[in-house]
Design a protein that fits this description.
The protein has 165 residues and is mainly alpha-helical. It has 2 domains: 32 residues; 107 residues, no CATH class. 66% of the residues lie in helices and 0% in strands.
């Protein structure tokens, strides 16, 4: 049986450390360089989100419905306000793990009601910013996007004359 020289054992230890550290170093390099060598930007939330009109954040939809730059600015401000209020509400509910099942259910119902009310308010504000033909175009987009699922919405059922029969 031959003995390994001492430097071989040291060399094996250094190789193991290098293998263990290399994925972490690669991740740091990717974070600093970003994709294509571009610096990585911190996460920025999408503020052009309006409940019921999520398509407004898409440039092709903005062009199709002829959204004006002033409207985009107003909708972004409205979306930011909505985002901030929603975020504050979620923070206010605290640590759910400390609540009992009944308390969680009650908080969830309260949160959903508050969110539903806010969504309706924000949507109404957005409809004040949009022109009637833009609202109609967005509703048409929703209908095309969701198709059969839209037929389960009471307002759509009424608009197309669909009954329970």
């Amino acid at each position: 049986m031959t003995r390994f020289p001492r430097y071989a054992l040291l060399l094996a230890a250094v190789a193991l450390v290098a293998i263990a550290v290399s994925p972490g170093l690669a991740q740091v390099a990717v974070k600093e360089a970003g994709q294509g060598g571009q610096p990585v930007k911190p996460f920025e939330p999408q503020y052009l989100y309006v409940p019921g009109y999520w398509q407004l954040s898409q440039p092709n939809v903005q062009k199709e419905i002829e959204l004006l730059p002033e409207q985009i600015e107003k909708l972004e401000a409205l979306g930011k306000k909505y985002y901030d209020e929603q975020r504050e509400d979620y923070k206010a509910y605290g640590d759910w793990s400390k609540l009992t099942a009944e308390e969680r259910t009650a908080k969830y119902k309260e949160m959903m009601e508050k969110s539903k009310k806010r969504n309706a308010e924000v949507r109404a504000e957005a409809e004040k910013i949009l022109l009637p033909h833009q609202i109609q175009a967005l509703q048409d987009l929703n209908l095309r996007s969701y198709g059969q699922y839209m037929l389960m919405q009471p307002n759509v059922m009424q608009a197309v004359g669909l009954t329970e029969e």
